[in-house]
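--- STAGE predict ---
source: upstream dedup step, 1 unique chain passed
mode: sequence only
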Amino acid sequence: MTISTTKLVDDNFKIIVNANGIGNEEEQLLVDVVNSNNASSQPKVSIANIAYEIEGTGIVTVFFKNNTDKKVDLSGRGNYGLKPTEEKIKDAIGDVLLSSDSNVTKYNVVIETH
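--- STAGE serialize ---
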């Protein structure tokens, strides 16, 4: 099954997307950076904030299509990106993707990119 995404904001500074889905999904499009408003031919973005609720014992991974080393693994409920101890995920070019493992029963993610 593919994830369901709703673009909440797409302006010159940020893109905010709400997404939900179930487990066992691979490389689903979370933030369509390439086709966003005012995108350049190589749009460079960073993840500013992720609010998430992951049900089940699994992990949801958020990563960049063109740089899978820049990623964040999410489980349970919480927020990523606002705490000083969390590594900033920035300066990647391209879309943001999401994968969920088979132990996730369902999830809801709101992501803000700059």
